[in-house]
Please model this.
Amino acid sequence: MKIIAAIKEAGNIKRFIPSDFGNDADHVHIVEPAKATFDVEAQIRRTVEAEGIPYTFVSCNFFAGYYLPTLVQPGASGLPADKVVILGDGNTKAIFVDEEDIATFTIKGVDDPRMLNKCSPLSIDLAILHSVYINGDHINFEIKPTVGVEATQIYPDIKYTTVDEYLNRLL
Model:
């Protein structure tokens, strides 16, 4: 992990915010081929923590712009015209976050002491969809204050985009 070695060598990095966007590697119960990617991500987290590098891991779950324009239809390139496949039993909740909201939260968290050393949350796509809609991995855990923070709670002044608001853009 060359970047971690470079951070340690520099010795003046105030906070490392890796490209950790997406599902939280520490809370997914995912199948291959996506599992290998999340295992590497979790190992990077452990190494950053073990090396004492100040960090913020931003886990935002699903990018709204990636999944909502197709109504989460694997392989689709636009809104389905006549049929939508519901994954799982239709009752599992998922979290979709607008990319602009992710950027806003990340920028606000860069120098926020409340975010220091915290995590804020096609075949690969199918493994990820299984993790969310079958296992419920977006909502099957509590965010413990010692290891993470919920963006909507620490930045209540930001108006985040709802799924309804996002879907209305597509109409």
About this structure: The helical segments are 2-10, 34-50, 64-67, 99-109, 123-133, 151-154, 163-170. The mean pLDDT is 86. The chain has one domain: 15-170.
